[in-house]
Amino acid sequence: MPTSLDTTNTWLAVMAIAIVVQTLLMIGVAVAAWQALGKATEAMKALETRHLSPLSDRLTAVSARVTEVADDVQEVIGRVRRADDAVRAQIDRLDTAAHVAGHAIGARVWPVVGLSRAVGAALKAFTARPSTRPSSTGTPHVAGVTTR
Fold first, then answer.
1. Which of 127, 126, 147, 128 lies closest to 138, judged by CA?
2. Which strand (E) or helix (H) includes residue 65?
3. Rounded to whole angstroms, what are the CA distances from 85 to 61, 71, 72, 82, 92?
4. What is the pLDDT of residues 38-92, one digit of tens each?
5. What is the pLDDT at residue 104?
6. 8 three-state secondary structure
7. CA angle (123 as vertex; 117, 127 as ends), nearest 5
């Protein structure tokens, strides 16, 4: 073992100086980081004040307007549906009335139509009678149509 501690003391001094330098560097980095954090916070506040707040206000206004328009559209859709229902109900009523009127008219007119058809058939039968001369072929005729 060496009797002199000069070498050991020298190394201890070098290590102490290195530790002090490292500590000072770490403190310097911490101070720089603290300052950078402060500047970043200020920049974020400025960004929020200048850009994000007005944008948020505009988005809120647009959202409110969109909600109003959507409500108006829903109201109009409701009116249109009610009008459509009213028109369909009126058409159904008119259809029912037309059927009732058609049946009523048909019930009253049908005897006249039947009578006119009967008279027309009788006139056709009387006007289509064969002449009073017998036919040369001996074939009987009924209303002008050969039966054989």
1. 147
2. helix 53-127
3. 36, 21, 20, 5, 10
4. 999 999 999 999 999 999 999 999 999 999 999 999 999 999 999 999 999 999 9
5. 86
6. helix
7. 150
